[in-house]
Amino acid sequence: MQRNTSFDFTLQNAQGESCVAQAWAKVRPSLDAAERFALKQRIQEALKQRNAVLIAHYYVDGDLQDLALETGGYVADSLEMARFGRNHAAETLVVAGVRFMGETAKILSPEKTVLMPDLDATCSLDLGCPADEFSAFCDAHPDRTVVVYANTSAAVKARADWMVTSSCALEIVQHLKDRGEKILWAPDRHLGRYIQEQTGADLVLWQGDCIVHNEFKSEELAMLRRAHPDARVLVHPESPAGVTAQADMVGSTSALLKAVVEGDASTYIVATDKGLFHRMRQLAPGKHLIEAPTAGESATCKSCAQCPWMAMNGLEGVLQCLTKGIGEIQVAPETQRRAHRCIDRMLEFTQQRSGTLRQGLVPHLGAV
Asked: What is the pTM of this model?
């Protein structure tokens, strides 16, 4: 039986004022090998019966990632999940990730049924950017092009001109800057700051952050680098400035994966959600992977980089949504119509630039 756990995290508004908010996540019960095998068998049958496909994010449990690949589904970052769901012939999409991913799938495929293992699986960036407050923020900056990160609600996307993911944000912001546009960016302040540094674009930043990436510690990372002088440091751009400043490469989840698989180093220190390590180890079994530190020496957990909401996705939830029809994503038609514009604009841009896009592989200019 599932149990709930509550935790505190910091929310910041557009003015940078901080407050501690409480959230909760469900802790799934552990399953033995026989139980997991039986659930996978039942899910495979249910997927066939419902003409459904399983799409999993790199951060969810390894069993779900494996099952998606074994059944003709997909494991990817949020941009590729959106593309795959839109283009797949299945009538039902099962999205193993967090709520904004399911909403994006529904916006792009309104004729399809979109199910999620747990509708309560959300995101601190989404929670920290309420649609009404964001709308007021936009009203206060009417001369700016509104660019929102994928980690936002459908209602926030409906107010935006562009949606971006970490794999295409740099290219899109550079494109807008080259057109002379000033930008309102939301919600992740670290990613926004990094893009601002790299492009020189005029950005006004919403002050949100990811509870996973915001916890990486620069001093502890420096100590870890000294202990492993030959290691390459790979960092997701949602991380604080002191962490990205030490990176050999800053990039999206798919870019970090590619860097490990194709890189010539034997050891990598990786600053992102530990869920990605499952796929890294599968595709690069000979590489030594080290989790970047999220706490100091006296902490109980030296690296606790795991999204509690991503961890709510489990085999049991996938089976229940397929067999009982629970966990269906709904987006109001008008919100869906307005949000579709900014998502489609991103997809069209990345498709047109596919020959020149660097797939999120952005060498950090100040790498050490």
From this structure: 0.88
